[in-house]
Amino acid sequence: MATIVKPRKAASVNPLKSSTPLGAALAYLGIDGAVPLFHGSQGCTSFALVLTVRHYKEAIPLQTTAMDEVATILGAAGNLEEALLNLQRRMKPRFIGIASTALVETRGEDYAGDLKLILQRQPELADTRIVFASTPDYAGALEDGWAAAVSAIIESVVAPWSPTVTSFQQVNVLPGVHQTPADIEALRDLIESFGLYPVILPDLSGSLDGHVAENWCPTTQGGARMEEVAQMARAVHTIAIGEHMRAPADLLGSVTGVPVTLFPTLTGLAANDRLMALLSRLSGRAVPGRYRRQRSQLLDAMLDGHFHFGGKRIAIAADPDLLYGLSAFFAGMGARIVAAVASTSNAPNLDSIPADSVIVGDLTDLEDAVHAAGGADLLVTHSHGRQSADRLGIPLMRVGFPIFDRLGTAHAQTIGYRGTRDLIFRVANLFLGQMHEHTPDDFGHVPSAHTIEEIVHDSASLAAH
After folding, report:
1. Which of the two residues, 13 and 236, has the higher pLDDT score?
2. Where are the domains of the chain?
3. C-alpha gyration radius of the chain
4. Which CATH topology does 20-139 take?
5. What is the per-residue pLDDT for 164?
6. Strand pairing class (34-39; 63-64)
7. What CATH code would you report for 3-10+310-433?
8. pLDDT, tens digit (0-9, with 9 covering 90-100), for 103-122
């Protein structure tokens, strides 16, 4: 069991975590026809917008209520009302997801009451589904905001269970913020291959998968449809991924009565065997042959890759569920986690990470931990860790959010048999890339021709005596 370490620093020198409202905005972006709205200042929104655009390389419809000094003192209900009306008139969204910021939360505004009054006196907002999630920047990180937004959607949209609407083909899926659009797409394909119908909330595979739309649209295109989300009580089962999705999953279970299975991770052999067994039981079908083949390929990749993983020293910094999944993956392949840093302590599984200790801190804490451990062979974190990797003199594997200096982030798959196989090859190739063929320079000074003749002569003289 890992020891949880919480350094008491006055400031974060090299931040690791992204903000809670940004996590909520990412969840809202997984809804079809949506516009995320930050209730706060323009600065709160601009940083989140820049990071999201650079990560996905897509147009992001993130908006703000643009609170100024006067609104901060006198109240921002007017800003919220004006923003909602402007969005409805100019962008015609089907869904508006509001996320609070530290500015609103610290002031202590009754934003829930404000929103209720706004909807009562503005009938033109009646056709737009509006959801509000409390996501102050100072409480939690990316995972917490994502979970809060999903919970707010479930509470506001999902209809309670009724005995007349049960469907034994529908399966609800609550992915975590650490799943890429490619992960979610692969999970959909897997569920459909068993003859089941997945309803995924949120669904980034339709809205942020990097496609070129036929026509420009100011809102998200693709993602979960509100009509299907409202009918999640029809499902026979709910699958949630990551401990940060436990609260939304429990809420959905209490509203709908649908049983829930939570997977801490879907990277690795055992986790995917468990998923296959669940889907086979729910559908009454045998596991399709192609997945048996992919499992065999994963086993072969594990055999090929363990030579390159064994004994390697890994340093990881990430959000808790991503940290847990990657740490378990590396440890299962024979590597050793010498430094583990989590963005927040709001996770019950930090002590289950296969490391001596888990630090709740930033990338500076990660560097210090690597130095204290005597070095590492690989640094695993997002793009902000590239300077740390340079200072430590070790390669960087980019994971999580944000990744702004590489292409194809949305298409990187790490779940399922195939995703785990590809992850093994990705890491092993990083290690192989650090190896090089030896040259004479690697062994010191190369003797000149005259020096070689002298060595031969001296050797012959010694042999004669």
Report:
1. 236
2. 3-10+310-433, 20-139, 170-294
3. 26
4. Rossmann fold (3.40.50)
5. 62
6. parallel
7. 3.40.50.1980
8. 888 888 888 888 999 999 99
